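Expect chain and fold; see below:
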Amino acid sequence: MLPYKTIQEAETALGRALTTAETLWFNYSATKSDYFLFCHNILFLFLIFSIVPLFYIFIEFVYKKVHIYKIQPKVKLSYSETFRCYRDVMRMFFLVVGPLQLVSYPSIKMIGIRMGLPLPSLGEIVAQLAVYFTIEDYTNYWIHRFLHCKWGYEKIHRVHHEYTAPIGFAAPYAHWAEVLILGIPSFLGPAVVPGHMITFWLWIALRQIEAIETHSGYDIPWTPTKYIPFYGGADYHDYHHYVGGQSQSNFASVFTYCDYIYGTDKGYRYQKRLLWQLKNESKSSGQQNGGSYNIYTGDLKCD
């Protein structure tokens, strides 16, 4: 709850007029407790898990012109299978994710996430989000590698790999222990560089939206994330699910630099080179014979 009863008191304390964003924040949060504001995380996560994947469901079942960008076109889930995935995710949400959010408020206060005024500048938000993504990506990489050891995979991570051709709803589909374990990397960034609750909300939202995109099963060329340096994306992570099992390839959650540095993207890069060669050979053969070939190479697999 803000320590100011009026906007005039807030402006006097800050020594300046409130910005439009700060005025909106004051009007919304002034009479609400910090705990109530923190619990907005639950609503945001529910809406993201429920609404964002609907875009990919739409192009899967309705707008089929986009199927040319489907990474594994041979795999088609039914309506019932898709709904079952969402149902299982929601069960985990209400039994694990939601209760975890309700009890994690003290840790948020302990690391210094603030909810008052002033609001952070756009530059501050961007800089902090960059730190959060970098820290989460690096720590997630190593935890993900651990989950692919024999014990980690058989006891925990195999649940997430039930979808060898992932869909948007399957991004948070995982064993309850994995949900808890992978919450640690998401928390480390804000713990190292604490910011405002609004930045924390943006971080949680962007990270989950990114996870949904990388599990979408569609490598859409016009997505804005194509312009982010070292970004993995759907094609990159889809290969990890496709190989599956004891795969030692493409552990990255967001960026690809860790896989490159530690040599865990060799299978993916080998497959890409092979597909490129086959594509060029098919073009050359098609030109020589006065036609073209439509080659699907989705069954190539190398870890």
Residues 290-298 have pLDDT under 50 and may be disordered. DSSP finds 15 helices and no strands in the chain.
